[in-house]
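Appendix B. Raw example, untouched.
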Amino acid sequence: MRRTATVLLAGLLAAAGLPAESAPAVERKQVGARITENVPEIPADLVERLERYQNTRGASFVGWTRDGGMLVATRFGETSQIHRVAAPLGMREQLTFYREPVQGAAVAPASGPDVFVFGKDVGGSEFWQLMAYDLGTRETTLLTDGGRSRNAGALWSRDGRQLAWSSTARNGTDSDVWVRDMRTGDARPVVTEGGSWRASGFSPDGRRLLVSRYVSINDSRPGEVDLETGRLRMFPVAGGTASIAGMTYAPDGRGVYYVSDEDVDGRTSEFRQLRFHDTASGRMEILSAHVPWDVQDFRIAADGRHLAYVANEDGIGRLRVLALPEHREIPVPALPLGVVGLGDFSPDGSRLALTLNTPTAPSDVHVLDLAAGSLVAWTRSEVGGLDTDRFVTPELVRYPTFDSVDGAPRTIPAFYYRPAEVPAGTRLPVVVNIHGGPEAQALPTFNPSIQHLVNELGIAVLVPNVRGSAGYGKTYLQLDNGMLREDSVRDIGALLDWIATRPELDPERVGVYGGSYGGYMVLASMIHFGDRLRAGVDIVGISDFVTFLTNTESYRRDLRRAEYGDERDPEMRAFLERISPLANAARIRSPLFVAQGANDPRVPASEAEQIVERVRGNGGEVWYLLFEDEGHGFRKKTNADYFNAATVLFWQRHLLDGDV
């Protein structure tokens, strides 16, 4: 279906004190689930040039199968689905076939049923329902209520007889921990204390379950529930508040491994360390004390002989493997510089599956043989027939910002993608790409859109980790909290200052791009530094913190208040209203492209609609794109391809002065 309509925003302009006759015309078109306003027709030759970049794909590890093969997640159609691979570089046999992507798949242990569990929502709503796929019969069974509940974090007991997960089924707001008996089908909530709870690990005998309440990225509250009596026992946290994750019982059940940034002997710990607590003696051992970075994940082999963990060292993943129970580090081969995703040990404990991703290669699954010390590729994903030698590896740079640390200027890390073979004297246009979260971290992963900008359009790309980003310590993480929100925006101003000092970069041609919280940063940057920004692309971004906190799904509201501030407090509400882009939209004078999913449970579509109307009401140029079958981002290939093509056209028009 295709509809075209012209809308005059006379009422909005009148409210803004502007004459109705100056209202810009809005050309609205609908093609299937895609709605555009003032987005020009995408030229066919642009689509053709993008085709190879948009047909790259990656694969990630899901779990081992009992026949020695594995399951992986990859996309061969519209969305990512589950595939089976029987041997290294073997064919990928697709098992799930849905228009919606599957997520959070977990394979049952070899001693349990021959099934895997996965989550699936509708249209990006994130009301995931858990499904069990029987690898023998190839039949799928719905495990959860099938309604408007959010179910995630599936976790198997060691014998495969029980499945735990988090669910909002009880009241739609609180995330309780549920457990299902996979033999009888009986399911019950075992933690209903209120708040956002997660299951971490079953005891070896299946009678106890480690759980935690997530309050914020800085505050997790661990405990243990007795599954027979229902008694919940909370653990003490050194220092009162800490980030604690990944709690797992030791193979013999006599201790717990976990990741934590708790204080040690009264001293503040900046980073999340891998720790072991011996429950019999009460002794706590820090296993990653020699690594001054966050430990992001770990796995323990089912046979109890090895533990693997990955540390995030300035954005680069570093793998280490320990022999248990003595915690002795054993040698492993060097991995490519990039991001390491821990898969799992094989059922016999002899091999470790990894998902490796680098700036110049998409994710693929590799297997480390512990005895041989060899690394074997199990998948080799496509790169659209492109010459990977032309792909650009970013340089990690640090630029000074407005404040100081120990008397020296604070520096902000950023990944700098620079086109190769630039003629002398050329000044490159720049796109600043800001991550969301805000408690996230931009990593040097493969990004075909960035590679296209750099290699085909000659645009330099800078990807900063402004204050508030994870990965650089507890202090850095909290530098943008509450009333400090706009200090992260000031970090973008400092990056624009740095760009002006670089002879190869053109400070007169800079655009800004970001999604979710990064979308807020786009809007805020265009408000504060509009005279230095040519254009901006805002994807599912926050435009007003008060309306965002009011309208985000109820199960997320308190989690977001912990980061942004509580809008129910009059002083905080006044601050949030004052800094919100919607209140300052009159200062956005550069062209703006806003893209949104209609079903977004995190940042509702109303956030996009109100900033589009306000900027247009002030006479600004806005392209608007809405997908009726998407949520917080674009997970269907056709939609993502269109958005990417429209974004390239936007940069050509507004950053490259119309050059193609």
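End of appendix B.
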